Every structure is written in structure tokens, then in C-alpha cells.
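An instance follows:
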Amino acid sequence: MGNSVKKSPFKIPNVRLFIAFRVFFNCRFYYPVFTILFLDYGLTLEQFALLNAAWAATIVLLEVPSGALADTVGRRNLLVFTGILMVIEMILLCFAPRGNSQLLFAIFLVNRVLSGAAEACASGADEAIAYDSLNDEGDIKDWPRVLEIQMRVQSIAFIIAMSLGAAVYDPALMGRIVEWLGLKIHLNQGTTLRIPPLLTLLMAVLTLLTALRMRETDHQRYRMKTGRAASIAGAFKLTLTAGKWILQTPFALAIILAGLLFDHCIRMLITLNSQYYRLIELPEATFGLIGSGLAILGLIVPRMARSMVQEHSPRFNLGIMTALTLIGLIGMTFFWPIIGLLPVILLRAAIYLQAFFQSHYLNRVTSSHQRATVLSFKGLLFNLAYGLIGVLYSLLLAQLRLQAGTGQPEISGAQLENLIFIKSIAWFPWYFLLTMLAMWLFARWRMKGTDEHKKPG
């Protein structure tokens, strides 16, 4: 910028609205009771599994097309559509009737498809409009500061949502609060199960209002006005172009592949956390508090990450993340009572670093006209990898179950499940080490003659 006084990135409206959008969109009060909420409505575990599969499939199918549409018909337009989808999604969840299992499943299926579509539409578009606004009105070197504040504010909101969502779901606790207030209201599980979705509906309305206040960047408006970004066919062409660009840009490809390896491996373990907590002798009543406590890392790690990208090279930062992840994965295999929580903390710190580095480095090398598409490609690959490791893990469990049944036929029930789980966790360090080594060799070959991975800042 030519101004003598540098403009704060937080004085740029789209940057502030980006942070608010991320907070409202991800502040879902039903997350701490996600599984039991569905079951208490009257769904079965099998139906719950099918609904989650539908949600993941929707994201995978719409991830890249939505990113391309954001780059063609407008990022703001897609974010407004995201807000509308979230409002409808939450209305269905809030007012779904209980009793008729077939009708209930159909309503929840629509809810999961809309939720997946909203996730796909938001992915990339919100970050792209904020980054380009910073590029137009401020200094893109401030993007790490924006990421730091966004992640810290979102972590605070997550702590509140985790704590409050679990509290309002408990009819006994809510009954005591109502009695203390002197109200003559009888609350049961059928009533309180709707409170977390209602609170999330409020977040959905705020998400929509935030998106409506956003404005397209000058560059995007020019492209739309001149007709260079007005066709749906252009979206698919841009998808292919962005995919080709990623394959032809060694640094971008290496960043996406590295992030993918951290993300899908650690995310799989996060999914299994509750079983791990039981085996390291943590009381179930503490699980929600642990989740809130881990979210505090989101207040600390982003500041460290900003310093790391400014002072160290991507190669150095990748090494730090790899060391943290390996120590965490190996530590989990020991199942130490209570202190076994320490490896989980290391893995959560690594996933925060991964998210920060991904955004910083990928935005740095991606041009404005295809930014949302490239970010959506990243999301697509991450979700595909997560689905793949889920399949591999289920096959591993089947093999371990067969071996345990043959070698120790006297073990059954919970003991058998615990034994299989403990043995399965021992595979994760080896899986991560081998895949990371393969990625490192591939990246070293592709990036021969370049120095992008050696540059700090």
C-alpha cells in the first residue's frame, strides 16, 4: 500500500465478517450430544451411520463444483446460499416430529444432505473473499494475523458451545435451573433435546445475516460484470483448470498432500477419542470438559503458528508438525492411565498448526481467480482421504477380530472390543510414518530446482 499509515486488516469489513461467519457457522450447540441427540429423537444406530454417510457423500460430491461456482457466480452469493441452507437444515432438526420412524429418517436425511451442501458451499468461498479483500484493501502479509484471531475467536465460541450445549440437554440440570428461577415448567428429555438445535438455529440466522452484509471484491465484480465469470459451464472449466494447476505447481501440491496426511490420520483418532478416554481411565462425565479444554489450544497455537510462518521455512515447520504427530501417535499406543491425555494434546496442537499452515501457504501461491476452487479441491481431497482411512480402519478391525477370535477364543464382549481397539491404535504411527516418508520423497522429486519450501514469511 502507498499509505504512510498501514491499515489494520480488521478495519476491512469483509475480514471482520469472515471471522464472524466462521464463528456462527461452526458454533453448533448439538455437537457435544450429537450421537445421543439423534438416538433420543428415535433413530437407530444403523440409521445414524447411514445419515453420516449421506452427509460425507454430499460434501465430496459438491466440494469442488461449489468452489468453482464461488469463483464464477460470486463468493458472496454462495455464502448467502450457505446461510439459507443452514437455516432450513436447522429448522428441520428443531421441529422434526418424534414417533414415526420412517418419516423421521426421511426428515433427517434431508437435514444431513442440506448440512453437507452447506459445508461444501462454505468451504473455500469464505476464505477466498476475505483473502482477496485483504489483498485489495490492505496487506496480504497480515493474513497470518487474521488467521490467528479467527482461530482464537472460533475456539472461544467452540468452548461455549460444547459446555452450554451439553448443559441444556440435561433435563435434570435444566429442571433445577427452572426451579431456582421460580418457574412452573416441567422439563423432560423430549423437551430439552430441542434446545441445542434451537440455539444452533439462532447461529444459522446470524450466519445468513453475516453473509448478506459481505460485498464482492473489486476484482470479482469486474469478472462478473464483464461476463468472464457468469456461466455454469465456466465453473466446470475452472474446476479442470484448477486441478491441472495444482498438479503442475509442485509447492501447492506438496502443501495439500502434507496437510492431507496430518488431517485424515489425526481426524480418525479424534473420532475414536471417547473409546480411548475410557481405556485410559477417564470418567465419562469429563469427556465434555476435556473437549472444551482441548479447544483452549485454539487460543494458544495460532499465535505460535504465526511466528513460525514468519521466522521459519515451510520445510522446517513440516518437520516440527511431523515430530509432534509421531510423538502423539506413539504416546497413545501405551494407553497410560490419565496422563495418556498428553499425546492427545500434542495431536490437537498438530491439527491446529496444520490448518494454519495450509491456509497461509496455499493462499500465498494461489491466484485470485481460482482461489475458492483450489481451496475446495483441498477440502475434497481431505474428505476423500478421511473416507479412505475409515474403510482401511474397518478392514483392520475385521482382521484383528479374526485373529483375536482364533488366538483367544475365551475373550468376548467388551474385553474383546477393548483388545481389538488397543491393537488397532498401534498401527497408526507406522501408517503415518510410511505415508509421510512417501510424500516427502515425492515432494523432494517434484520440487527439485525450486526454493519455495525454503522461504519463510
About this structure: Residues 232-457 form a domain with the Growth Hormone; Chain: A; fold (CATH 1.20.1250).
